[in-house]
Amino acid sequence: MEKKNIDWGNLGFAYMETDKRYVSEYKNGAWDDGALISDATVTMSECACVLQYAQTCFEGLKAYTTEDGRIVTFRPDLNAERMEASAKRLEMPVFPKDRFVDAVTQVVAANEAYVPPYGSGATLYLRPYMYGKNAVIGVKPADEFEFRVFCTPVGPYFKGGIKPLTIRVSDFDRAAPHGTGDIKAGLNYAMSLHAIVSAHKEGYDENMYLDPGTRTKVEETGGANFLFVTKDNKVVTPKSGSILPSITRRSLVYVAKEYLGLEVEEREIFFDEVKDFAECGLCGTAAVISPVGKIVNHGEEICLPSGMSEMGPVTKKLYETLTGIQMGRIEAPEGWIHVIK
Ligand code: PLP
Ligand code: COI
Q1: Which of 22, 65, 320, 334 makes an SS bond possible with 118, Cβ 3.0 to 4.6 Å?
Q2: Known active-site residue 27
Q3: d(CA 122, CA 156)
Q4: Which numbered atom of ligand 1 lies nearest the CA of 60?
Q5: What is the per-residue pLDDT across 169-206, written as a single tens digit (0 to 9) for each?
Q6: Residue nearest to atom 3 of ligand 2 (CA)
Q7: Ligand in nearest proximity to the CA of 220
Q8: pLDDT of 325 higher than 80
Protein backbone atom coordinates (compact mmCIF):
# COMPACT_ATOMS: atom_id res chain seq x y z
CA MET A 1 0.00 0.00 0.00
CA GLU A 2 1.50 3.29 -1.08
CA LYS A 3 1.23 5.98 1.60
CA LYS A 4 -0.08 9.48 0.85
CA ASN A 5 2.52 12.16 0.38
CA ILE A 6 2.09 13.78 3.80
CA ASP A 7 4.73 15.51 5.93
CA TRP A 8 3.99 13.15 8.84
CA GLY A 9 6.54 14.66 11.20
CA ASN A 10 5.01 18.12 11.02
CA LEU A 11 1.33 17.29 11.46
CA GLY A 12 -0.56 19.16 14.16
CA PHE A 13 -3.86 18.07 15.67
CA ALA A 14 -6.08 19.15 12.78
CA TYR A 15 -8.69 17.69 10.44
CA MET A 16 -7.60 16.38 7.06
CA GLU A 17 -10.22 14.79 4.83
CA THR A 18 -9.43 11.14 4.09
CA ASP A 19 -10.92 8.79 1.49
CA LYS A 20 -13.60 6.80 3.31
CA ARG A 21 -15.89 7.08 6.32
CA TYR A 22 -18.46 4.70 7.78
CA VAL A 23 -22.16 5.55 8.12
CA SER A 24 -25.06 3.65 9.61
CA GLU A 25 -28.58 5.08 9.90
CA TYR A 26 -31.15 4.37 12.57
CA LYS A 27 -34.80 4.56 11.45
CA ASN A 28 -38.02 2.87 12.58
CA GLY A 29 -36.29 1.45 15.63
CA ALA A 30 -33.35 -0.29 13.91
CA TRP A 31 -29.83 0.35 12.61
CA ASP A 32 -29.30 -0.37 8.91
CA ASP A 33 -26.38 -2.49 7.67
CA GLY A 34 -23.99 0.47 7.44
CA ALA A 35 -21.43 1.13 4.71
CA LEU A 36 -18.24 2.95 3.83
CA ILE A 37 -18.89 6.08 1.77
CA SER A 38 -16.74 8.70 0.03
CA ASP A 39 -18.80 11.86 0.69
CA ALA A 40 -17.33 13.78 3.63
CA THR A 41 -20.35 16.07 4.00
CA VAL A 42 -23.59 15.60 5.95
CA THR A 43 -26.98 16.92 4.83
CA MET A 44 -29.87 17.16 7.26
CA SER A 45 -32.97 19.11 8.24
CA GLU A 46 -32.49 22.67 9.47
CA CYS A 47 -34.44 21.55 12.52
CA ALA A 48 -32.40 18.38 13.25
CA CYS A 49 -32.30 17.58 16.96
CA VAL A 50 -28.49 17.78 16.96
CA LEU A 51 -28.60 21.33 15.61
CA GLN A 52 -31.29 22.57 17.99
CA TYR A 53 -30.71 20.60 21.18
CA ALA A 54 -27.15 19.23 20.83
CA GLN A 55 -28.17 15.58 20.86
CA THR A 56 -24.75 14.19 20.00
CA CYS A 57 -21.95 12.19 21.54
CA PHE A 58 -18.59 11.08 20.23
CA GLU A 59 -15.48 9.01 20.87
CA GLY A 60 -11.79 9.34 20.09
CA LEU A 61 -9.22 6.61 19.55
CA LYS A 62 -6.11 6.09 17.46
CA ALA A 63 -4.64 3.61 15.00
CA TYR A 64 -0.90 3.01 15.16
CA THR A 65 1.69 1.40 12.92
CA THR A 66 3.70 -0.91 15.15
CA GLU A 67 7.43 -1.53 15.08
CA ASP A 68 6.87 -4.75 13.09
CA GLY A 69 4.59 -3.05 10.54
CA ARG A 70 1.15 -4.10 11.74
CA ILE A 71 -1.71 -1.59 12.02
CA VAL A 72 -3.51 -1.72 15.37
CA THR A 73 -5.97 0.18 17.53
CA PHE A 74 -5.90 0.46 21.31
CA ARG A 75 -8.81 -0.93 23.37
CA PRO A 76 -11.63 0.04 20.94
CA ASP A 77 -14.03 -2.11 22.98
CA LEU A 78 -13.78 0.43 25.80
CA ASN A 79 -14.68 3.28 23.44
CA ALA A 80 -17.72 1.26 22.34
CA GLU A 81 -18.75 0.75 25.96
CA ARG A 82 -18.31 4.42 26.81
CA MET A 83 -20.34 5.42 23.75
CA GLU A 84 -23.08 3.08 24.95
CA ALA A 85 -23.15 4.98 28.27
CA SER A 86 -23.19 8.33 26.45
CA ALA A 87 -26.00 7.21 24.12
CA LYS A 88 -28.18 5.96 26.98
CA ARG A 89 -27.74 9.19 28.96
CA LEU A 90 -28.66 11.27 25.88
CA GLU A 91 -31.69 9.13 24.92
CA MET A 92 -30.03 7.75 21.81
CA PRO A 93 -30.04 4.15 20.59
CA VAL A 94 -26.96 2.06 21.37
CA PHE A 95 -24.72 1.13 18.45
CA PRO A 96 -23.71 -2.47 19.23
CA LYS A 97 -20.15 -3.01 20.47
CA ASP A 98 -19.15 -5.58 17.85
CA ARG A 99 -20.43 -3.31 15.10
CA PHE A 100 -18.58 -0.32 16.60
CA VAL A 101 -15.29 -2.25 16.53
CA ASP A 102 -16.05 -3.49 13.02
CA ALA A 103 -16.79 0.06 11.79
CA VAL A 104 -13.49 1.33 13.25
CA THR A 105 -11.66 -1.58 11.62
CA GLN A 106 -13.26 -0.90 8.22
CA VAL A 107 -12.41 2.82 8.35
CA VAL A 108 -8.76 2.21 9.23
CA ALA A 109 -8.38 -0.49 6.56
CA ALA A 110 -10.03 1.69 3.89
CA ASN A 111 -7.74 4.61 4.74
CA GLU A 112 -4.53 2.63 5.14
CA ALA A 113 -2.67 5.14 2.97
CA TYR A 114 -3.26 7.75 5.70
CA VAL A 115 -2.01 5.64 8.62
CA PRO A 116 1.24 7.35 9.64
CA PRO A 117 4.38 5.18 9.43
CA TYR A 118 6.06 3.80 12.55
CA GLY A 119 8.41 6.29 14.16
CA SER A 120 6.91 9.35 12.42
CA GLY A 121 5.44 10.75 15.63
CA ALA A 122 1.99 10.85 14.00
CA THR A 123 -1.03 8.54 14.39
CA LEU A 124 -4.41 8.08 12.74
CA TYR A 125 -7.11 9.63 14.93
CA LEU A 126 -10.55 8.04 14.70
CA ARG A 127 -13.70 9.90 15.54
CA PRO A 128 -16.82 7.76 16.01
CA TYR A 129 -19.93 9.88 16.69
CA MET A 130 -23.67 9.76 16.73
CA TYR A 131 -26.37 12.40 16.44
CA GLY A 132 -30.14 12.92 16.38
CA LYS A 133 -30.96 13.71 12.78
CA ASN A 134 -34.66 14.25 12.21
CA ALA A 135 -36.54 17.51 12.79
CA VAL A 136 -37.55 18.14 16.40
CA ILE A 137 -38.91 21.47 17.62
CA GLY A 138 -40.41 20.63 21.01
CA VAL A 139 -37.72 19.56 23.49
CA LYS A 140 -37.56 15.81 23.00
CA PRO A 141 -35.12 13.28 21.55
CA ALA A 142 -34.93 12.54 17.82
CA ASP A 143 -36.10 9.16 16.58
CA GLU A 144 -33.74 8.97 13.62
CA PHE A 145 -29.98 8.89 14.18
CA GLU A 146 -26.70 8.50 12.36
CA PHE A 147 -23.61 6.72 13.63
CA ARG A 148 -20.46 7.68 11.77
CA VAL A 149 -16.72 7.10 11.98
CA PHE A 150 -14.16 9.22 10.14
CA CYS A 151 -10.40 9.37 10.54
CA THR A 152 -7.67 11.94 10.14
CA PRO A 153 -3.89 11.71 10.56
CA VAL A 154 -2.67 13.79 13.51
CA GLY A 155 0.45 14.92 15.30
CA PRO A 156 0.70 16.11 18.92
CA TYR A 157 -2.39 17.71 20.50
CA PHE A 158 -0.39 20.50 22.11
CA LYS A 159 1.75 22.70 19.88
CA GLY A 160 5.07 22.24 21.67
CA GLY A 161 4.88 18.42 21.42
CA ILE A 162 5.92 17.11 24.82
CA LYS A 163 7.20 20.38 26.28
CA PRO A 164 5.63 21.02 29.71
CA LEU A 165 2.41 23.02 29.62
CA THR A 166 1.23 26.00 31.62
CA ILE A 167 -2.41 25.73 32.65
CA ARG A 168 -4.75 27.89 34.69
CA VAL A 169 -7.57 27.20 37.08
CA SER A 170 -10.76 28.06 35.21
CA ASP A 171 -13.51 30.23 36.65
CA PHE A 172 -15.94 28.49 34.30
CA ASP A 173 -17.22 24.97 34.88
CA ARG A 174 -17.41 22.36 32.11
CA ALA A 175 -19.84 20.09 33.90
CA ALA A 176 -22.55 20.26 36.56
CA PRO A 177 -22.95 18.10 39.65
CA HIS A 178 -25.12 15.17 38.51
CA GLY A 179 -24.83 16.45 34.92
CA THR A 180 -23.11 14.99 31.86
CA GLY A 181 -19.43 15.39 32.78
CA ASP A 182 -18.94 11.61 32.88
CA ILE A 183 -20.09 10.99 29.30
CA LYS A 184 -18.63 12.17 26.01
CA ALA A 185 -21.46 14.53 25.06
CA GLY A 186 -20.74 17.26 22.51
CA LEU A 187 -22.45 19.71 24.86
CA ASN A 188 -19.62 19.37 27.42
CA TYR A 189 -17.19 20.62 24.81
CA ALA A 190 -19.49 23.51 23.82
CA MET A 191 -19.40 24.47 27.51
CA SER A 192 -15.59 24.59 27.38
CA LEU A 193 -15.14 26.66 24.20
CA HIS A 194 -15.31 30.10 25.81
CA ALA A 195 -12.98 28.96 28.60
CA ILE A 196 -10.36 27.58 26.20
CA VAL A 197 -10.44 30.64 23.94
CA SER A 198 -9.95 32.93 26.92
CA ALA A 199 -7.21 30.69 28.38
CA HIS A 200 -5.32 30.82 25.07
CA LYS A 201 -5.74 34.61 24.87
CA GLU A 202 -4.15 34.88 28.29
CA GLY A 203 -1.25 32.64 27.26
CA TYR A 204 -2.30 29.36 28.92
CA ASP A 205 -2.33 25.99 27.17
CA GLU A 206 -5.38 24.55 28.94
CA ASN A 207 -7.85 24.95 31.80
CA MET A 208 -7.91 23.02 35.02
CA TYR A 209 -11.56 22.59 35.98
CA LEU A 210 -12.48 22.24 39.63
CA ASP A 211 -15.46 20.27 40.88
CA PRO A 212 -18.59 22.27 40.04
CA GLY A 213 -20.21 21.58 43.42
CA THR A 214 -17.59 22.99 45.81
CA ARG A 215 -14.78 24.30 43.55
CA THR A 216 -12.22 22.83 45.94
CA LYS A 217 -11.26 19.61 44.14
CA VAL A 218 -9.34 18.95 40.91
CA GLU A 219 -11.45 17.50 38.10
CA GLU A 220 -9.91 17.44 34.62
CA THR A 221 -9.08 19.66 31.65
CA GLY A 222 -11.21 20.27 28.55
CA GLY A 223 -9.83 17.16 26.84
CA ALA A 224 -7.84 15.04 29.31
CA ASN A 225 -7.75 13.61 32.85
CA PHE A 226 -5.04 14.48 35.39
CA LEU A 227 -2.31 12.27 36.76
CA PHE A 228 -0.12 13.54 39.60
CA VAL A 229 2.99 12.02 41.10
CA THR A 230 3.81 12.56 44.78
CA LYS A 231 7.32 13.29 46.04
CA ASP A 232 7.55 9.63 47.12
CA ASN A 233 6.61 8.38 43.61
CA LYS A 234 2.98 7.48 44.18
CA VAL A 235 0.65 8.06 41.23
CA VAL A 236 -2.50 9.94 42.24
CA THR A 237 -5.48 10.60 39.97
CA PRO A 238 -8.83 12.30 40.65
CA LYS A 239 -11.94 10.28 41.33
CA SER A 240 -15.14 12.16 40.51
CA GLY A 241 -18.58 11.47 39.12
CA SER A 242 -18.35 14.47 36.81
CA ILE A 243 -15.17 13.66 34.84
CA LEU A 244 -14.81 11.52 31.74
CA PRO A 245 -13.63 7.98 32.54
CA SER A 246 -10.50 8.23 30.39
CA ILE A 247 -9.36 5.00 28.77
CA THR A 248 -5.79 6.31 28.78
CA ARG A 249 -5.99 7.04 32.51
CA ARG A 250 -7.46 3.62 33.28
CA SER A 251 -4.71 2.01 31.20
CA LEU A 252 -1.99 4.08 32.90
CA VAL A 253 -3.25 3.09 36.34
CA TYR A 254 -2.77 -0.55 35.29
CA VAL A 255 0.63 0.18 33.73
CA ALA A 256 1.79 2.04 36.86
CA LYS A 257 0.80 -0.85 39.13
CA GLU A 258 1.55 -3.90 37.00
CA TYR A 259 4.46 -2.80 34.79
CA LEU A 260 6.21 -0.23 36.97
CA GLY A 261 5.35 -1.51 40.45
CA LEU A 262 4.12 1.92 41.57
CA GLU A 263 1.50 2.60 44.17
CA VAL A 264 -1.62 4.26 42.73
CA GLU A 265 -4.38 6.18 44.48
CA GLU A 266 -7.65 7.07 42.75
CA ARG A 267 -9.29 9.53 45.08
CA GLU A 268 -10.61 13.05 45.52
CA ILE A 269 -7.76 15.54 45.16
CA PHE A 270 -8.12 18.91 46.82
CA PHE A 271 -6.63 21.82 44.92
CA ASP A 272 -4.74 22.73 48.10
CA GLU A 273 -2.70 19.52 47.73
CA VAL A 274 -1.46 20.33 44.22
CA LYS A 275 1.45 22.47 45.45
CA ASP A 276 2.91 19.37 47.16
CA PHE A 277 3.05 17.13 44.06
CA ALA A 278 6.29 16.41 42.20
CA GLU A 279 4.84 15.88 38.70
CA CYS A 280 1.62 16.49 36.83
CA GLY A 281 0.45 15.20 33.46
CA LEU A 282 -2.64 15.36 31.26
CA CYS A 283 -3.67 12.00 29.87
CA GLY A 284 -5.99 11.14 27.03
CA THR A 285 -6.06 9.74 23.52
CA ALA A 286 -5.16 13.07 21.94
CA ALA A 287 -2.96 14.28 24.81
CA VAL A 288 -1.24 10.86 25.33
CA ILE A 289 0.57 12.12 28.47
CA SER A 290 1.38 15.78 28.23
CA PRO A 291 3.45 17.07 31.14
CA VAL A 292 2.33 20.15 33.06
CA GLY A 293 5.08 22.43 34.41
CA LYS A 294 3.04 25.26 35.89
CA ILE A 295 -0.47 25.73 37.26
CA VAL A 296 -1.74 29.27 37.79
CA ASN A 297 -4.62 30.08 40.12
CA HIS A 298 -5.58 33.74 39.81
CA GLY A 299 -2.00 34.95 39.62
CA GLU A 300 -0.67 32.48 42.17
CA GLU A 301 1.83 30.14 40.48
CA ILE A 302 2.46 26.53 41.35
CA CYS A 303 5.70 25.45 39.66
CA LEU A 304 6.00 21.67 39.59
CA PRO A 305 9.50 20.50 40.65
CA SER A 306 9.75 18.60 37.33
CA GLY A 307 10.22 22.03 35.70
CA MET A 308 9.45 23.58 32.33
CA SER A 309 11.98 21.82 30.11
CA GLU A 310 11.11 18.12 30.27
CA MET A 311 8.76 15.47 31.60
CA GLY A 312 9.19 14.35 35.17
CA PRO A 313 10.86 10.93 35.55
CA VAL A 314 7.73 8.98 36.56
CA THR A 315 5.60 10.64 33.90
CA LYS A 316 8.30 9.71 31.38
CA LYS A 317 8.30 6.05 32.41
CA LEU A 318 4.51 5.95 32.14
CA TYR A 319 4.66 7.63 28.72
CA GLU A 320 7.32 5.28 27.41
CA THR A 321 5.55 2.17 28.67
CA LEU A 322 2.14 3.16 27.33
CA THR A 323 3.41 4.23 23.92
CA GLY A 324 5.64 1.13 23.88
CA ILE A 325 2.53 -1.03 24.32
CA GLN A 326 0.62 0.92 21.66
CA MET A 327 3.46 0.72 19.13
CA GLY A 328 4.20 -2.95 19.77
CA ARG A 329 7.61 -2.51 21.47
CA ILE A 330 6.33 -3.79 24.81
CA GLU A 331 4.04 -6.76 25.29
CA ALA A 332 0.46 -5.62 25.88
CA PRO A 333 -1.96 -7.00 28.45
CA GLU A 334 -4.43 -9.50 26.97
CA GLY A 335 -7.09 -7.81 24.83
CA TRP A 336 -5.58 -4.31 24.71
CA ILE A 337 -4.41 -4.40 21.08
CA HIS A 338 -6.91 -4.85 18.26
CA VAL A 339 -5.03 -5.85 15.12
CA ILE A 340 -6.41 -4.41 11.87
CA LYS A 341 -3.74 -5.96 9.64
N1 PLP B 1 -11.40 13.96 29.51
C2 PLP B 1 -11.98 14.60 28.49
C3 PLP B 1 -12.86 15.75 28.78
C4 PLP B 1 -11.74 14.17 27.18
O5 PLP B 1 -12.30 14.79 26.14
C6 PLP B 1 -10.88 13.08 26.96
C7 PLP B 1 -10.64 12.60 25.60
O8 PLP B 1 -11.18 11.65 25.15
C9 PLP B 1 -10.30 12.45 28.06
C10 PLP B 1 -10.58 12.92 29.33
C11 PLP B 1 -9.38 11.28 27.88
O12 PLP B 1 -10.10 10.12 27.58
P13 PLP B 1 -9.43 8.95 26.75
O14 PLP B 1 -8.19 8.58 27.47
O15 PLP B 1 -10.44 7.88 26.78
O16 PLP B 1 -9.16 9.48 25.40
C1 COI C 1 -9.58 12.64 22.65
O2 COI C 1 -8.51 12.61 23.27
O3 COI C 1 -9.91 11.74 21.88
C4 COI C 1 -10.50 13.74 22.81
O5 COI C 1 -11.64 13.58 22.51
C6 COI C 1 -9.97 15.01 23.34
C7 COI C 1 -10.24 16.20 22.48
C8 COI C 1 -9.63 16.12 21.12
C9 COI C 1 -11.70 16.53 22.43
Answers
A1: 65
A2: no
A3: 7
A4: 8
A5: 999 999 999 999 999 999 999 999 999 999 999 999 99
A6: 60
A7: 1
A8: yes
